[in-house]
Amino acid sequence: MSIHDKKPYGPIRVVLSEDEMPRQWYNLAADFKTPMLPPLGPDGKPVTPDMLSAIFPAPLIEQEVSQERWIDIPEPVLEILSRWRPSPLHRAVALERALGTPARIYFKNESVSPAGSHKPNTAVAQAYYNKISGVKKLTTETGAGQWGSALAFSCALMGMECKIYMVKVSFEQKPFRKLMMQTWGGTCIPSPSPYTEAGRSVLAKDPNCPGSLAIAISEAVEEAVSDKTGSTKYALGSVLNHVMLHQTIIGQEVKAQLAKIGERTPDSVIACVGGGSNFAGLAFPFVKDKIEGANIDIIAVEPASCPTLTKGVFAYDLGDMSGMTPLLPMHTLGHEFIAPTIHAGGLRYHGMAPLVSKAVLDGLVEPRSVHQLECYDAAVTFARTEGIIAAPESSHAIAMAIREAKQAKEEGKEKVIVFGLSGHGLMDLAGYEKYFAGQLQDYEFSGEDLENSLKCIQSFPKPPAAVAR
């Protein structure tokens, strides 16, 4: 059969106008049947908003603790987001044909942002709220470099300084990410570094430490709180409630795009998950539907070598390595855990967003894990059918979507599958090169690994047994 003999499809690319872009963010915390556990301070008591003021501006603290279901997006933020939003929803018809599946596969393409991923959705918002609060400089961490690039881009638009601590193994694997940050005026250094007490402490124990997001967070927070003038604050690219909030514009657009072409509610909604921001952005608006009775499988896909949700425990743990953050109620592998040097650097985090953890505990989200070789195999299939070279992080969602599509074929079911393409992989080609050369391997996370990595949290307060089930 030639390409011209293929059966006709509906719209291949679904685009909303700027006027159709969502004007509010959705806060999942408002719809849980039971309240979330609070973050705790060093004394084991709940953190107060005032305790967060050293690193975050007041508007973001208000969003962090808000129980309002809908929060208005400021017009200046909408104006910047409209440079690339609403992002397109694609029907993956070529992938469907290659798989021979009766499923209809859609993907939300967040790679069209200037930084090449979903990260600017919150970076722009965070830079804006800091700017109007009088902040002149933001510090942050980054894994694969997508968040660091997004914040450097956003700070450039706001006329602010930006300092990024990049996990060393990713700094070495992805040199062009550093150049992107530099082009937007950001300063990017490898972490652990000799410039902070946190970094020096790690290097003293292991001069060849590959780094981790927890270490980079410690360094960025330390620099922010060391500025006693208050002109430097810290910005986090994932995990916290306000970050999840800002990303929900993604899923809201998807729902509007599916409705625009008369497509039914998806059977499966799939996104990769590391700290939670990309997953929350696509999935949380659909979690709301599931709470209200919709029959949707919502799947969070993580690396098998960093299985926070699938093998970790729900506990109170630090978000960083050196204890500068509150204790968060989340699934964790232990804050001292350093993941294998897989190329999906954005997913190499020991913990999970408390909102995502709560959704998993409540049975609203199903976590699954995939090894990196299957992910790269799926990414290559995707590139050779749909034409887009996906980020290694996004390849986890692609791999799971392919699994679901093959299952639909076996069952003879016409499923609707939606997955998130969180970013492109044009800055990650070194990983593809190693894949083609047969130089990548899978890493299995063992029970012994978990036992060792959790020793660092044994003295922390424990969630109620009824919650940490």
Automatic annotation (TrEMBL):
Top-level lineage group: Bacteria
Job description of the protein: The beta subunit is responsible for the synthesis of L-tryptophan from indole and L-serine.
Amino-acid biosynthesis is among the record's keywords: yes
Annotated keywords: Amino-acid biosynthesis, Aromatic amino acid biosynthesis, Lyase, Pyridoxal phosphate, Tryptophan biosynthesis
SUPFAM superfamilies xrefs: Tryptophan synthase beta subunit-like PLP-dependent enzymes
Name of the gene: trpB
Catalytic activity: (1S,2R)-1-C-(indol-3-yl)glycerol 3-phosphate + L-serine = D-glyceraldehyde 3-phosphate + L-tryptophan + H2O
GO cellular component entries: cytoplasm
Domain Tryptophan synthase beta chain-like PALP residues, every copy: 84-423
Enzyme Commission code(s) on record: 4.2.1.20
Gene3D superfamilies linked to this entry: 3.40.50.1100
Record protein name field: Tryptophan synthase beta chain
GO molecular function: L-serine hydro-lyase (adding indole, L-tryptophan-forming) activity; pyridoxal phosphate binding; tryptophan synthase activity
Organism: Gracilinema caldarium (strain ATCC 51460 / DSM 7334 / H1)
Keyword check for Lyase: yes
